[in-house]
Amino acid sequence: MAAENSAKAVEDMKIGDGEVAEQEDVVNPWDVQSASDKGVDYDKLITRFGSSKIDDALIQRMEKVTGKPVHHFIRRGIFFSHRDMHALLDLYEKKQPFYLYTGRGPSSDAMHLGHLVPFIMTKWLQDVFDVPLVIQLTDDEKYLWKDLTEDEAHALAYENAKDIIACGFEEDKTFIFSDFDYMGGMFYKTVCRIQRRVTNNQTWGIFGFNGETNIGKNSFPAIQAAPSFSSSFPEIFNRKTHIPCLIPCAIDQDPYFRMTRDVAPRLGYPKPGLIHSKFFPALQGPKTKMSSSEPTSSVFLTDTPKQIKTKINKYAFSGGRDTAEEHQKYGGNCEVDVSFQYLRFFLEDDEKLEKIRQDYTSGELLTGFLKKELIEVLQKLIKEHQERRAKVTEEVVKRYMTPRKLKYDF
C-alpha cells in the first residue's frame, strides 16, 4: 500500500511535456512553451497542478483582513493561483506570525522586467503584512545547470542582490543569502532532513531526472525547499521550527513546492503557502521564450531610455492590423499585443488602462501610440530603479546578506 501511495504521489506531482498527451503547454522550472498565440492556458494549469484560483471571494477577504486594496497584480489576475492563502489570512487575523520566502536564480548580471514581477509582489506583501522576508539566491543551481564557474555564479548572485535591494526591501526585515555562502549549520540540517525523506523515484517523476542526471541536480530540490521551513534560519526565528511560510513565485516554480508540501508533514513542519504569477511575455510574444542571454527578448534593468524605445518599437509583438485603415476598421487584439500586456503589469492606473484597451480594441488607438505610452512608462520605471540601485554599495549588500536577527521577536 505504501508503494502504491508513493507511486500515486509521483504521478500526481509529475510535470513536463510527456505528462498527458493532450496538454500542449510545457511548464516546468526550466522550460515554458505554449502552442497558443495567447500564451499558457492558466485555467488548465490550475487543474493540472492542483492549486486554487484567486477568486473574488479571496480578494475581498484579503482587502477586509488587511484594510487595504489588493495590489493591481492580484486585481488584474497576474497573480492568479494560490495554495493555502486562506490559512495565512487566518494567521494574520489571529496575530500569529508567518514569513515570506522568494528567490532568484542568478544567471546573468542584468535582470529583466520579468524578474522584477515576484519582487514587486513580495514587497507589497511585506509592507501589508509586516513580516520577515528571506530571499534565496541559487548560485549553486546556476552552476549545476548553466555553463558558469562557481566564482561566476557567486559573483552574479551579489550583482542580482543589488537589483533586489533596489526594489525597496527594508534592511531590518529582510535577509538575502547565497546558497554557496549560507549552506551549512541549521540550513544544511534542514536540507538533509528533506533529502532523507524524498526518493530518487520522486525527484525523477517530478522533475524528469534520470540516470544520466548529475547528483547535484538530483539533490538541488531539497535546497530550494529548505527556506520554506523556519528551522533553516535560527538567527531570525530564535530556533523556532513551526513558523509558517508564504512563497510568491511564478507558477513554473510550483513543482519544487509540491514536493516541499508533500514532505512537510513527515518533517513535522507546516506546509508552505504559495501565491503564483503568470509569465511575463517576451517582446516577440508569448510563444517565444525570454532569455537573459538574448537582449532583444526583453527590456533589461540596465537599458538606456534609447534602448527601451528601440526595443519596444522594433521588437514588441503587435496585435494591430497590417494597415492603419484595417486597424481603424477592425480594431486591435489586446490579448496578443505585447505592449498592452506590459502595460497590464506596469501601468497602475486602472481607468487609464481600460481606456487604452477600449480605444485599441475599437481601432481608435493605433499601435504606434500604444507603444509610445508603454515606452514612457518603462523609461520612468527603469530610470527610478537605476537611481536606487546606484545607491546600493558593496557594504549595503554585505549588511543584507549577513545572517542576523531581524526586527521581529519570536
Explain how this protein is built.
- With 410 residues, the protein is of the alpha/beta class.
- It contains 20 helices and 9 strands.
- Strand 1 (26-28) and strand 2 (31-33) form a beta hairpin.
- It is 51% helix and 10% strand.
- Residues 1-21 have low confidence and may be disordered.
- The strands form 2 sheets. Strands 3-4-9-8-5-6-7 form a 7-stranded mixed sheet, with helices on both faces. The chain has a two-stranded antiparallel sheet with strand order 1-2.
Uncertain regions spanning at least 5 consecutive residues: 1-21
Instruction: Round the mean pLDDT to the nearest integer and report it.
Output: 91
Strand content: 5-15%
Q: How many individual helices?
A: 20
- Principal-axis shape equals globular
Estimated structural class: alpha/beta
Strands, helices and their partners?
Blueprint: H1 2-13, E1 26-28, E2 31-33, H2 42-49, E3 52-53, H3 56-66, H4 72-75, E4 79-83, H5 85-93, E5 99-104, H6 113-129, E6 133-137, H7 139-145, H8 150-165, E7 174-178, H9 179-182, H10 185-197, H11 200-207, H12 215-225, H13 234-237, E8 245-250, H14 254-267, E9 273-277, H15 305-315, H16 324-330, H17 338-346, H18 350-362, H19 367-389, H20 394-400
Parallel strand pairs: 5-6, 5-8, 6-7, 8-9
Antiparallel strand pairs: 1-2, 3-4, 4-9
Helix pairs in contact: 1-11, 3-5, 7-8, 10-12, 12-14, 15-19, 17-19
From the structure above, extract its key features.
single chain, 410 residues, alpha/beta, seven-stranded mixed β-sheet, two-stranded antiparallel sheet, 20 helices, 10% strand, disordered N terminus
